[in-house]
């Protein structure tokens, strides 16, 4: 169900104080920022791809949460807090697809809990209105990452991460081909947190907060169907020995296709790059070609077969 950490290896630290903003813009700011003036920093928002938006719960008014006109930014408890507010994305996530989205935390994190995660349509999002609780992850139908670093499911903390603070970019990757959930903090993977998500017929993106005037913004949201192309790209990228280059070692044409659609599967630093850096493109392509040329026919065959077996779901049976 979920990935755990051995007790003797688990770090006994307060994850809240490990949280860092994505860029230096936030460290230059002293004191609180009014929630109506939170979009001064646009770092990490280069890609204007948002396949879905937040939907307002029918039972709440403007005293509980405020949505921008484009339904991308949410401010919870804009005046004062008297409980837990939650919003759900209007994107039902179905089997055999990959989903990835990013949230930028725009305000200071404090209070009982601020959570980012997923949940099924069975999650009761109306009862906790007047209760301060960690809503996402309190039952078997939801999974959440807290600003404190706690990864929650079924009212249990399954593991720790670095958490998040004002200015942090939090990514959520849901693989409903393999049934896994992984969180990213400032585009750094935190490891697979949960397995067996395919037991749910449908899941939805969710965010919740008990903190007054806490704001989050959806800055990226994409999905793609599971395919042999993605798995083959991951295997070929893993065969590159020299990882000093930031770019994947793929031919420019294939790299451009994968970067636009499946950038998360590639061994990048997690950042988007400009198309104008032709020299780096060529250097990456040369490195990839050199690597492929050094492989024997047998090794190339194994790479292709691994991707094929993984795509059709028999890799676990063959133990490869």
Record keyword descriptors for this entry.
320 residues, seven-stranded antiparallel β-sheet, alpha+beta, 14 strands, single chain
3D structure, described in words:
This protein is α+β, with helices and mostly antiparallel strands. 18% of the residues lie in helices and 25% in strands. The strands form 2 sheets. The protein has a 7-stranded antiparallel sheet, with no helix packed on it. It is globular, with a radius of gyration of 21 Å. 35% of the residues are buried.
Count of distinct strands: 14
Calculate Rg over CA atoms. Answer: 21 Å
Number of contiguous helices? 5
Percent strand equals 25-35%
Q: Any chance you could write out the topology, listing elements then pairs?
A:
Layout: E1 54-55, E2 65-67, E3 73-76, E4 85-89, E5 97-105, E6 114-119, E7 142-146, E8 150-153, E9 156-160, E10 169-175, E11 180-185, E12 188-194, E13 204-209, E14 214-225, H1 228-238, H2 252-262, H3 278-294, H4 297-312, H5 315-318
Antiparallel strand pairs: 1-4, 2-3, 3-14, 4-13, 5-10, 5-14, 6-7, 6-13, 7-8, 8-9, 10-11, 11-12
Helix pairs in contact: 1-4
What's the short story on this structure?
The protein is α+β, with helices and mostly antiparallel strands and 320 residues long. The protein is built from five helices and 14 strands.
């Amino acid at each position: 169900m979920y990935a755990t950490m051995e007790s003797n290896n688990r770090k006994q630290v307060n994850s809240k104080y490990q949280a860092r903003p994505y860029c230096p813009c936030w460290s230059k700011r002293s004191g609180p920022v009014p929630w109506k003036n939170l979009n001064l920093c646009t770092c990490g928002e280069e890609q204007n791809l948002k396949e879905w938006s937040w939907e307002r719960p029918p039972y709440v008014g403007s005293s509980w949460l405020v949505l921008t006109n484009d339904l991308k930014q949410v401010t919870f408890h804009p005046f004062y807090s008297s409980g837990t507010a939650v919003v759900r994305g209007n994107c039902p996530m179905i089997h055999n697809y990959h989903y990835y989205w990013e949230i930028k935390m725009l305000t200071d994190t404090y209070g009982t809990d601020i959570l980012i995660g997923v949940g099924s349509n069975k999650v009761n999002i109306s009862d906790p209105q007047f209760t301060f609780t960690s809503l996402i992850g309190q039952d078997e139908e939801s999974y959440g990452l807290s600003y404190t670093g706690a990864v929650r499911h079924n009212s249990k903390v399954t593991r720790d991460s670095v958490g998040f603070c004002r200015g942090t970019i939090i990514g959520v990757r849901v693989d409903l081909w393999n049934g896994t959930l992984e969180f990213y903090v400032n585009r750094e993977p935190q490891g697979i947190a949960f397995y067996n998500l395919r037991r749910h017929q449908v899941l939805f993106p969710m965010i919740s907060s008990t903190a007054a005037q806490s704001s989050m913004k959806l800055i990226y949201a994409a999905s793609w169907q599971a395919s042999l192309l993605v798995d083959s790209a991951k295997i070929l990228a893993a065969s590159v020995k020299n990882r000093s280059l930031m770019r994947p070692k793929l031919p420019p044409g294939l790299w451009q296709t994968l970067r636009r659609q499946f950038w998360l599967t590639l061994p990048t630093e997690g950042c988007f790059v400009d198309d104008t850096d032709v020299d780096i493109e060529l250097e990456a392509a040369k490195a990839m070609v050199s690597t492929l040329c050094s492989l024997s026919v047998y090794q190339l065959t194994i790479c292709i077969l691994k991707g094929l077996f993984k795509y059709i779901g028999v890799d676990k049976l063959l133990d490869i």
